[in-house]
Design goal:
By secondary structure, this protein is α/β, with parallel strands linked by helices. About 35% of the residues lie in helices and about 15% in strands. The chain contains 40 helices and 59 strands. The strands form 19 sheets. It has an eight-stranded parallel β-barrel, surrounded by four helices. Strand 53 and strand 54 form a beta hairpin. Helix 30 packs antiparallel against helix 31, helix 31 runs antiparallel to helix 32 (about 1155-1170) and helix 34 packs antiparallel against helix 35 (about 1325-1340). The radius of gyration is 43 Å and the shape is globular. It starts with 6 loop residues before the first strand and ends with a helix.
């Protein structure tokens, strides 16, 4: 019942591009691609670069996946292709259909599996506790273990090293001089370590310490002094390969010379000294740059055109008679400057073609006319040059603003580095380009620009741009970042230029690939430094190389894109495993708590999700750090007392967590990645608090961190996957981690200290807390305290922390031994909610306490027993289950065994029954007071709501509130069934026994387990239901099964029998004891027409509705006996040769419709052809209620005849001619009908063989809306009388005749003639003659020919559409015959022999174009003047055509005709060849996919009676209608 494997389903929709949506999956998961409604029926191909088994991953190699259609071919709802995900990484998929190679796609990310220890056990990603080390501060490799041991002893299980390569001259950890060489600083004199030694150390830590190691990879830049970049300057952006940077380089050189001049005091007399100390000095910088520097370098000349040479060239062209080539200008007369790709001064040109088109001589090419044109061109060129000048001025203004900002921060701002006087070491602004030559004058510098062998060594530095578009490379052409000085520049690093692939810069790609492979060989993972600025295609290539060596590569990155959607671009394309998030980004404890909730876990009490479920977008897995290594020190920003509680908030998060070395030691300053050269302290258990070079558990908060790391890892390993965050007050955050299988919790209460308690007053009043359940122990209580160990002095050799603070910690103590809290008492909220109230006595700022909480013993046992009984539905409940020592009798039998005894009529009660049906029994559907009533009294009513709540874990929903607040809903479910008696009562007792456990567990868990019980029972009931149906349903698709449920939904037995009694001599008729009369009575299943309006009482059963739906709901589903009983029950009510429309149990029947008898006859035919030995029904006894037209209702068994006699009577009465007045005619049976409307006529036209009848005051077919508005004067006027010969009745009659003739030949029907009395004479008409007569006349009289002179056309003036079939023939209002409606498709299905294939196909195509809606068929041509597609039965106005819903069948889109339309399309498409048939199957599947979506999403689990135009919801429609469901099911059966 439950797949054991985790399966996720991705639904593909046409034109849906999900490149920026993150889908994360675990290894071992199966991913299924299924078709959404827009693709069903199309030949869709899905491609992926996930490798086939045994093949290596190649990002650019895609393969097509095979489709699996387990249930056959009737629809595409279950068709899928699958990927078995066994390899981590990022994989792309895309799909297309027809000529569309790619009409949608996206990425999936498969998480790596990390293994640690000598035994290679799995380290789940949520278990990770990581600590960052600046590698250069570890000292010689010999001493690393002594320093790294601090991380081991503090409980970390992963180390992040900054790069271990040779550093550049700036000594920044991220400026690497050689990516392939190990930093020589790690080797001692006389000994050289290499990568193998590092690898051995990493392996030793993995095996002996259970610690994994990752390190950074830096792809964006290399150190400016890298030797290899001197040899390969093409690897950077220089003036040769990137000439667009020339203006920026010139400005950079000018600023350097400006720096030198300031340093030498040359501008002191202009108010600009070397030491910049005021805003006046800044103002002086601005003035000098505008007046002295900018005019000297004339940057605008790089963007301008030299006017006179261009004018001369133009003049020559005009004089030679040149004409413009208009194909090159696209008719756009616009003169633009064309930028010189080499960026020379005045090197630009203009398009002469445009010039010739714009500046045309007025008359001839006379010299004066030519000169006029040249002058116009000259003026325009000068204007263009002015525009370029102004734009350059804008760039220079922005450059000034950026210089101003930099100087302010570096020299004036309190929070800046205060660099002091301008010198060559501390220039005014950082240089943007390298200049590896001797300094000289600016003029001499600029000459070097034109010497390629030198210009290639002026390399652009890297940096970052505030607010820049992350996917744009700011050094490429089109960006002015360098010229506008917007780059916050790293003057020690050269930006690398990869181009678009390895062929653009072979050395760089090969060098960086080697670097990547060295890293991947020795480390389990990488941190992508500066990821958001790394070109995506570069990172993809390098990570592919890394994963080729280490398939389970762990990839970490910190992104600063400012948008989750942009983050996802990097995460999905690179397969990033965890994104670094930082608690320091929170401004207060409330925000810090919110981050915990955001970054992992589901809510406490969340529902158990099925193993097979939709794939939903995720947020990136978080690596949540209390502080990152390149951010400011929390002690400076917050307070030393906050280190412990904020760290605890991070550690309790349900994701990877971590810190930076120095945080736990309480180092009170940022450890700079650039300037820090001291070493980390070593581990020594005996170290003194004052020791600057050694630490132990008494140092800083290390003891606290050890406890927190252990707790973090335990919670993740033991499945504490649920999270609840409670903001107790402005400084206190309580985080609960809960295990959904054992229901144990850990509650951590953390009192933050963002402000120092010595300077800020914190209240002593801490609100008490109520902790539900039983506190087993205090896992830890800890706080930061001062101690006598001297004050902090920054050590010269070691990165030392503050000795004056330590952590006071106790672990695993009883509540009574706690110093922080005391227990105020145990209270019981209701019978199942045990709560311990906790009073805080010493929760000072900087404190943390964590409790381990279990359910109280009784609840714990009951949950275990409940889980034990749920194992029958899902093996996942085995964890935490407990054997039931006193199993109640009701639970001793598995539920499947009990439910297997239920009939499908019982299933109607168990699963469905709407409010009106329930009320008939004295009940009603369950009502949730603040919300709404459920749709059904049965399980489906509850399951429909839970299906919406469950995937979102919407535990705040009123439904869940109602469950938590009391047992009313729980009791409703069991009591409703127990009151029924029989097997249903046994099912009720099973629920009652299960609920006895449920009621006594904590209320917050009730929604979860109520859902589990109901889902198990519901799934079991569905399995049993389908087992009792036909093989078509049992082997059918999900869609088929959902539709088949409509049979259970609509067919049931009410309190009062809806059908008249069958013959007492008939076998296999169900009986029951009437509770009131204590007499035995028949209890046959009857069919409701629609829910909720036609479900109970006399309005439940309608002849027409029943027999339109019977084939789909009962014959196709295999409910043959019940179908037989319904056919025979209606046969017993035959009167005047008609079957009643409104049945009214037979005694209150109205015989006012002309079509029900023909639908009944069609059903008998279908029964005979579809049911094994189906023709036996013809011999079945029919108990005639009205053996004559005038007889009163006779009791069953009084007068009986075989069914074939009743059929013959119906046919004979029509041939004779039916004419009568309804009994009790008048307002007592119809308050709207005019008197003439009660006169019923149904006859056969002897010339055509067509059945005809009705009059303009009644409506005898399914389009039966009677006018009701006195105000609009349509009361008593039918909107659609359809008198004359309605097309579907003629078709149904022809179908019946063909069948009876065939039966007669087979000797199964004794009659071949009909005997009638005409004008006192006995006449006989053979069935064959009647059949031939219709065949001969139908197409001549019903088809509207394309020939305007068609002799068969009586009213050519009324024809407004050709190539269609009339809706009727011989109507009293002749124009009604010519209306385009969907009814002719019914005749096509039941009597296709009446139609010529080509004419039928043409008419069907017109119907498709004009009538086909999303779910239904328009009931009238939208071109018709009375068309109105919106049905509103409550509207009463003066509009004759729509008031009081007069347009019920004049446009609204009814669902059931779509079934006949699609079946007709399929039938005739087959006759037209393979191609037509295949395209029709696509249409059918595509249309039906919308019904599938509706059915899946409908809380009624049905298809509506009708929709308004274009598929819009109609509130007056039945929410689920028998014939709508049946008609769609029949299409699938035909497929």
């Amino acid at each position: 019942m439950t797949p054991s494997k985790q399966i996720r389903v991705m639904v593909l929709n046409d034109m849906e591009n999900l490149d920026r949506t993150l889908f994360r999956l675990d290894q071992g998961f199966e991913l299924q691609f299924r078709l959404g409604p827009t693709l069903q029926g199309k030949h869709v191909h899905v491609y992926t670069n996930y490798p086939a088994e045994g093949e290596r991953f190649d990002r650019h190699k895609f393969r097509a996946l095979k489709w699996i259609n387990s249930t056959g071919r009737e629809d595409d709802s279950d068709k899928f292709c699958t990927l078995d995900l066994q390899i981590s990484g990022s994989y792309q998929y895309y799909f297309g259909h027809g000529d569309e190679k790619k009409s949608g796609g996206g990425y999936i990310v498969v998480d790596p599996v990390l293994r640690v220890g000598a035994d290679n056990h799995v380290l789940p990603l949520d278990c990770i506790s990581i600590q960052t080390y600046l590698s250069k501060c570890l000292g010689p490799l010999d001493e690393w273990l002594d320093r790294l041991r601090v991380a081991k002893e503090a409980g970390y299980n992963m180390i992040h090293f900054t790069p271990l390569q040779t550093l550049g001259e700036s000594r920044s950890c991220y400026s690497l001089a050689d990516q392939l060489e190990l930093n020589p600083d790690f080797s001692l004199p006389g000994q050289t370590y290499n990568w193998t030694d590092v690898g051995n150390l990493v392996e030793k830590m993995k095996n002996e310490w259970n610690m994994l190691c990752i390190t950074d990879v830096v792809y964006n830049h290399t150190a400016s002094n890298s030797k290899w970049i001197r040899k390969h300057p093409e690897c950077g952006y220089n003036l040769v390969n990137s000439p667009h940077l020339k203006p920026a380089w010139i400005l950079d050189r000018a600023l350097w010379h400006f720096t030198c001049d300031i340093a030498e005091g040359k501008y002191a007399n202009k108010g600009l000294p070397a030491l910049i100390q005021s805003h006046e000095h800044l103002h002086a910088i601005r003035g000098i740059l505008w007046q002295d520097v900018y005019p000297k370098i004339k940057l605008w000349e790089f963007f301008q055109v030299k006017v006179e040479p261009v004018v001369d060239q133009f003049r020559s062209l005009l004089q030679s008679g040149a004409k413009p080539d208009k194909s090159k200008t696209n008719g756009k007369q616009q003169l633009k400057i064309i930028q010189d790709p080499q960026y020379r001064r005045f090197g630009n040109t203009v398009d002469m073609n445009s010039a010739l088109e714009i500046f045309v001589p007025h008359s001839s090419n006379s010299p004066s006319a030519v000169e006029d044109c040249c002058n116009w061109l000259r003026r325009r060129l000068e204007e263009l040059n002015d525009e370029q000048f102004r734009e350059s001025q804008h760039h220079q203004e922005q450059a000034l603003n950026c210089i101003d900002g930099t100087v302010t921060y570096e020299r004036l701002a309190d929070h800046g580095p205060k660099l002091g006087p301008v010198t060559s070491k501390h220039p005014l602004v950082t240089r943007y380009f390298t200049f590896p030559f001797e300094a000289s004058t600016l003029e001499q510098d600029l000459e070097l620009m034109n010497q390629p062998e030198k210009a290639c060594h002026f390399l652009a530095h890297n940096g970052w741009v505030m607010g820049d578009e992350p996917l744009r490379n700011f050094a490429e052409p089109g960006s002015n970042v360098y010229m506008r000085r917007e780059l916050i520049c790293w003057g020690d690093s050269v930006k690398l230029r990869y181009g678009s692939g390895p062929e653009d810069c072979p050395y760089l790609w090969a060098h960086m690939q080697k670097y990547t492979e060295i890293t991947a060989k020795h480390f389990v993972g990488v941190r992508l430094d500066n990821c958001h600025s790394t070109p995506l295609h570069v990172a993809e290539f390098m990570l592919d190389a890394a994963r080729a060596l280490r398939p389970d590569l762990y990839v970490v990155a910190e992104l600063f894109t400012g948008s989750e959607e942009l983050d996802n671009v990097f995460v999905t394309k690179l397969g990033i495993s965890s994104l670094i998030r930082e608690a320091m980004s929170a401004g207060d404890s409330h925000e810090e708590g919110r981050l915990v909730y955001r970054y992992g876990g589901e809510p406490v009490g969340a529902f158990l999700q099925p193993n097979l479920r939709p794939l939903v977008p995720s947020i990136a897995h978080a690596m949540f750090l209390d502080v990152t290594h390149d951010n400011e020190c929390p002690i400076q920003v917050r307070s030393v007392y906050d280190s412990l509680p904020s760290s605890a908030i991070v550690s309790i998060a349900c994701c990877a967590t971590g810190s930076t070395r120095g945080y736990d030691d309480l180092v009170p300053h940022q450890i700079s990645v650039v300037s820090e050269e001291r070493f980390y302290t070593k581990w020594n258990p005996e170290a003194k608090p004052s020791s600057p070079s050694e630490v132990n558990l008494q140092s800083g908060i290390i003891a606290g961190k050890l406890a927190l790391n252990r707790l973090h890892q335990e919670l993740a390993a033991k499945g504490f996957s649920q999270v609840f965050v409670d903001q107790v007050d402005e400084d206190i955050v309580a985080v609960t981690r809960h295990c959904p299988s054992t229901h144990q919790s850990v509650v951590a209460v953390c009192r933050t200290a963002f402000k120092n308690p010595k300077q800020h007053h914190y209240t002593d009043e801490v609100p008490p807390m109520c902790i539900p359940g039983k506190i087993e122990e205090v896992v830890l209580e800890a706080r930061t305290v001062e101690r006598q160990a001297g004050s902090y002095e920054k050590d010269e050799k070691n990165i030392n922390g503050m000795p004056g603070y330590t952590v006071e910690i106790k672990e695993h103590i009883q509540l009574k031994d706690s110093k922080v809290v005391r227990q105020a008492g145990v209270t019981s909220r209701g019978r199942s909610e045990f709560v311990q109230e906790i009073v805080f006595e010493q929760l000072t700022p900087g404190s943390v306490i964590a409790f381990r909480v279990s359910l109280d013993p009784k609840s714990q046992e009951l949950v275990g027993v409940l889980r034990h009984h749920l194992v029958q539905f899902n093996p996942l409940y085995k964890a935490g289950s407990v054997l039931d020592q006193n199993t109640p009798d009701a639970l001793k039998t598995p539920l499947a065994q009990i439910i297997s005894k239920l009939t499908l009529a019982d299933m109607n009660i168990l699963l469905f029954r709407c409010d009106a049906e329930e009320k008939e029994d004295g009940g009603g559907c369950y009502n949730i007071p603040v919300w709404t009533s459920l749709k059904y009294g049965g399980l489906q009513g509850l399951l429909s709501v839970m299906a919406d709540i469950r995937p979102k874990n919407d535990l705040g929903h009123p439904f869940c509130d109602n469950l938590r607040q009391g047992d009313w809903m729980i009791d409703y479910v069991s009591n409703r069934l127990m009151s029924r008696g029989g097997t249903l009562a046994e099912v009720g007792q099973w629920f009652h026994a299960m609920f006895a456990y449920l009621k006594h567990i904590p209320r917050y868990l009730i929604p979860r387990y109520f859902d589990a019980i109901l889902v198990g029972a519901y799934s079991t009931a569905l399995d049993v239901t389908f087992e009792q149906m036909s093989s078509f349903v049992q082997n059918g698709s999900t869609f088929v099964k959902l539709l088949a449920l409509g049979s259970v939904q609509m067919c049931g037995v009410g309190l009062y029998p809806a059908l008249p009694p069958l013959s007492p001599t008939l076998t296999d008729v169900p009986y029951r004891l009437n509770e009131t009369t204590k007499q035995k009575e028949q209890c046959c299943v009857s069919m409701a027409a629609g829910l909720p309006h036609f479900s109970a009482g006399i309005f439940r059963c309608w002849g027409r509705d029943t027999f339109i739906a019977l084939r789909g709901l009962m014959l196709v589903t295999g409910r043959h006996l019940e179908a037989r009983n319904i056919i025979l029950a209606f046969a017993g009510t035959l009167r005047h040769g008609l079957i009643p429309n409104l049945l009214g149990e037979g005694v209150g029947a109205r015989f006012n419709c002309r079509d029900a008898v023909w639908w009944w006859l069609q059903c008998i035919q279908d029964f005979c052809t579809m049911v094994p030995n189906g023709t036996d029904i013809l011999q079945c006894p029919v108990s005639r209620m009205y053996p004559t037209d005038e007889s009163n209702a006779l009791p069953p068994g009084t007068e009986e005849q075989p069914l074939y006699e009743v059929i013959h009577e119906a046919m004979e009465r029509h041939m004779q001619g039916i004419e009568f007045r309804e009994r009790n005619a008048g307002p007592q049976i119809d308050r709207n009908m005019k008197d003439e409307g009660f006169n019923i006529v149904a006859k056969v036209n002897p010339d055509t063989g067509f059945v005809y009848g009705g009059n303009r005051f009644n409506c005898g077919t399914w389009m039966d809306k009677m006018g009701e508005s006195e105000r609009a004067r349509n009361k008593g006027i039918p909107a659609t009388p359809r008198d004359g010969s309605a097309v579907e009745i003629v078709g149904l009659c022809k179908s019946t005749l063909r069948w009876l003739v065939e039966l007669n030949k087979q000797r199964l029907f004794p009659y071949n003639t009909l005997n009638i009395n005409k004008d006192g004479k006995q006449l006989s008409v053979s069935y064959e003659d009647w059949d031939r007569n219709i065949q001969k006349n139908f197409e001549n009289l019903f088809h509207v020919s394309q020939d305007p002179n068609d002799p068969n056309e009586k009213h050519p003036e009324l024809v407004h559409k050709r190539g269609i079939y009339k809706d009727s023939y011989g109507a009293s209002s002749p124009w009604c015959d010519y209306q385009l409606r969907p009814n002719f498709t019914i005749a096509m299905v039941v009597a296709p022999e009446l139609f010529t294939v080509e004419k039928a196909w043409e008419a069907l195509n017109i119907a498709e174009e004009k009538l086909l809606g999303p779910l239904g068929m328009k009931t009238l041509d939208p071109d018709d003047m009375v068309y109105c597609g919106v049905y509103d039965n409550s509207l009463d106005n003066d509009n004759y055509n729509i008031t009081r819903g007069f347009n019920y069948h004049q446009g609204p889109e009814w669902l059931w005709p779509i079934g006949y339309f699609l079946r007709a399309k399929l039938y005739f498409a087959k006759k037209l060849g393979k191609d037509v048939y295949e395209s029709t199957v696509y249409l059918v599947k595509n249309v039906l996919s919308r019904h599938y979506i509706h059915l899946e999403r409908s809380s009624w689990k049905g298809l509506p009676e009708l929709t308004n135009e274009n598929g819009q919801y109609c509130s007056f429609s039945c929410e689920t209608q028998a014939w709508s469901v049946a008609a769609v099911l029949e299409v699938l059966h035909d497929l």
